[in-house]
Amino acid sequence: MNTKEYLVQSIVSQMTIYLMNDYNWDMQTALRTIYHSELFQKLDDPEIELYTQSPKYVYLFLKKKLTTGKYI
């Protein structure tokens, strides 16, 4: 596992916990939501380098998308 993969998985792990706590979701639902989101594609993109940001910062984008349908 390289550094980028490690950082992405660390962020996914923390975002899973956030989703489980905020929405009372089980782990499968939280992971499915993350892995099927546009945000995950951006998180994994080496050109954007979103994986260098904190898990909470990245999660706020996902939460915004879930609540409003938009990232911004």
In short:
The chain is mainly α and 72 residues long. The chain contains four helices and no strands.
Report what the structure shows.
- This protein has 72 residues and is mainly α.
- It contains four helices and no strands.
- The mean pLDDT is 95.
Number of helices: 4
Query: What average pLDDT do the residues reach?
Result: 95
Uncertain ranges: none
The radius of gyration is: 11 Å
Structural shape: globular
Question: What is the beta-strand fraction?
Answer: under 5%
Helical amount among residues, as a percent range?
55-70%
What is the number of strand segments?
A: 0
Secondary-structure map:
Blueprint: H1 3-23, H2 27-35, H3 38-43, H4 55-68
Helix pairs in contact: 1-2, 1-4
List keywords for this structure.
single chain, 72 residues, mainly alpha, 0% strand, globular
